[in-house]
Each structure stands twice: as structure tokens, then as C-alpha cells.
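Q: Hi! First time doing this. I have a protein sequence and I read that you can turn it into a structure. Is that right? Here it is:
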Amino acid sequence: MASVYDFTATGIDGAEVPLDRFRGQALLIVNTASKCGFTGQYSGLETLHRQYADRPFEVLGFPCNQFGAQEPGRAAEIASFCSATYDVDFPMFDKIEVNGPDRHPLYDWLTSQKKGLLGSRNIKWNFTKFLTDREGRVVGRFAPQVEPATLAPEIEKVL
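A: Yes, that's right. Below is the predicted 3D structure, encoded as C-alpha cells:
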């Protein structure tokens, strides 16, 4: 069986990032967007990133433009927005697709491990969150409206 550490993604700076670099860490993987009603969750995600900075935990942000075209910018614009508006310091990646035939392999795997409502593999909207344990297994899938702060007890369980 694969683990989250078996995948590679393009960082927001254009460099390939093997997720193996996060081996041994619990991860909160989130598809993000800069012009969404949930965009304010960047603040909560950054709070979790800082709260657990000294623990084996990382937030990973994956911008996606598949929901209402709410992430229209290029990588540099997204990075600038996240940094200037929400002081985001957690790793961000280049825009990906999370549904459909061009779904990123990471999201193909994530959605096969934890299905959504009624067994759907599709991501419903921006800011869907996946939590992996320190062995790289998906242990939770959380809907967009779930505020990052409420995930602290789940994060504590995997640390």
C-alpha cells in the first residue's frame, strides 16, 4: 500500500518536492483558494502550523481553481497573496486539479483512502482537509466548513 510519502508535487516556487521529505510527520493536506468564502481559513491553518512547529506536523496547501474559478492567479501571485494577507509560512504548492481526469496523483490516492459523503471520491469544495498520521496513512477527511482550530484534538491523536 502506498503512503503519502510516495508522491511528488511541484512547490509554489516551481521546484519538485518529494513528499518523502515530510516522512515521520503528520500532515494536514488542504486544497486552497484565494477568492473563496473559506479563504479566511488560511489564518487558522497558519495558527496550527505555528502551534505545532516543534512537533512532527506540517500543513501543506494545494491551490486549486476547480471550484468557482476561485484561484485564478499564477503561483507567484498566490504565494504573494498568502504571505501578505495571512502571513502563511507553511509549504504551499503549485495549482493542481483535485477532481476529474487530470486529478493530481496525490489527490487520486487521498480520495481513494478516505471517501466523502455517500462514498464519493470527489472533493466537494475548496478547503477540504485530509489528515495523515506519522506513517503516511490517511486517518481523516474533513469538510470545507470544518474550521482548522477544531482539528487540534485529531492532530494531537496522531502526534
